[in-house]
Amino acid sequence: MDLIERIAEVESQCLRAIEGSRTEGELALVDNRYLSKKGALSELLKALKDVPPEQRPKVGARANEAKTKLEALIGTRREGFQSRALEEKLNSERIDVTLPARKTPAGSLHPVTLVISETTAIFRRLGFELSEGPEIDTEFHCFDALNIPPDHPARDMQDTFYLPREVKENVVLRTQTSTVQIRTMLAKKTPPVRILSPGAVFRSDYDMTHSPMFHQIEGLYVDRNVSFAELKGCLLFFAKEMFGPDAKIRLRPSFFPFVEPGAEVDVWFKNRANPEGGQKEGQWLEILGAGMVHPEVFRAVGFDPAKVSGFAFGMGVERIAMLKYGIPDLRLLFENDVRFLRQFAGS
Ligand code: PHE
């Protein structure tokens, strides 16, 4: 058998082997066995040196032709295996878009946050702007400028958290948001001032209805000829917006060093839960302190009390939340039990 015939025979053996391979791995073995450097075809060509020189180009060309053809076939078959594997993988990993989705619970706003944002929205309609101050503040902003003298019980160590002397002297965790009145008037220098200031305050107090940290919302309106009647009007508007159209307010004379006259304000609101069930139809509850800004406060910030007047009020946010949502225990607001918080979703 001459060399050309032997090439043809190896070629057809290889062809059958290619067709018989069932995996990419088997195909690689065929490739190796027939076409690699030590493969069957190369082995055959070692005999080329025994071929008469004039015939060598013809034999060589035949061998190359076989090699090119077989390589092309192997390439095509390999691609076939690969695309089949890819398709199988895609099929087995297919996502079933008709399966019901896993629920992601949306969070809910904390009742304290709800009351703050609702209150701010109500007063914004009356032209009050948001103004915030620091929770750690000086005794000057928290007491002195607010006409609270050094021997006032509010400054007592039992009520007020002081920063340790070694850290800084005369610095406290603010006990009331009234600090922001002082800061705003000092910064603005001239009226009008019309601000609302929500935030955390701190007092050394802890029981069923008191927490060492709670929230207040301060309001301040200073201009020429601001009257007590306007204060009442503002608060009544707020009460009706917050607690419903039947809400009423009642002012009881009271004392705060930074206002004169001063009042405690109660809100009457309807018992919606059980209006007929032998319960009182509604009830009065104290929710804020208010009054006309004291001349001493104006002097402390460089405003002339003969030319300007104003009113201020401060309300307890947790108190309002408890009233509005019927929460019986203040501590529920700070425990952050999700079963409690979840009830405010969508409020
Ligand atoms: N700051 C007072 C308090 O904490 C409330 C208040 C504010 C009263 C403004 C009058 C005017 O009790």
SSE topology:
Elements: H1 3-20, H2 24-35, H3 40-45, H4 56-92, H5 111-124, E1 129-130, E2 136-138, H6 139-142, E3 171-173, H7 179-188, E4 193-202, E5 213-223, H8 228-243, E6 248-254, E7 259-270, E8 282-293, H9 295-300, E9 309-316, H10 317-325, H11 332-335, H12 338-341
Parallel strand pairs: 1-4
Antiparallel strand pairs: 2-3, 4-5, 5-9, 6-7, 7-8, 8-9
Helix pairs in contact: 1-2, 1-4, 2-4, 5-8, 5-10
Bound molecules: phenylalanine (PHE).
CATH class category of the largest domain? Alpha Beta
Going by CATH, the architecture of the largest domain would be: 2-Layer Sandwich
Radius of gyration: 44 Å
In whole angstroms, the N-to-C terminal distance is 96 Å
The main sheet comes to: 7 strands, mixed
- Compute the number of helices: 12
Count of domain modules? 2
Question: Would you report the number of β strands?
Answer: 9
Poorly predicted tracts of residues: none
Indicate the percent of residues in helices.
40-55%
**Mean pLDDT value:** 91
Strand order of the largest sheet: 1-4-5-9-8-7-6
Task: List each distinct ligand once.
Answer: phenylalanine
Could you say what the CATH topology of the largest domain is called? BirA Bifunctional Protein, domain 2
Q: What name goes with the CATH superfamily of the largest domain?
A: Bira Bifunctional Protein, Domain 2
Structural class: alpha+beta
Order of helices and strands: HHHHHEEHEHEEHEEEHEHHH
Question: Can you tell me the overall shape?
Answer: rod-shaped
DSSP strand content: 15-25%
